Amino acid sequence: MITRRLFCGCLAGALPLAVTAARAQSVECAVFTPDRQKSISPDDAIARLKVGNERFTTGKSINCDLMAQVKETAGNQAPYAAIVGCIDSRVAPELVFDQRIGDVFCARVAGNIVNTDIIGSLEYSTKVVGARAIVVLGHNSCGAIKAAVDNVKLGNITALLKNFQPALATLSKADGHRDSHNYPLVQKVAEANAKLTAESLTKRSPILKQLVDAKQLKIAAAMHDIKTGKVSWLS
Ligand SMILES: [Zn+2]
Question: Residue ranges of the chain with pLDDT lower than 70?
Answer without folding.
Answer: 1-24
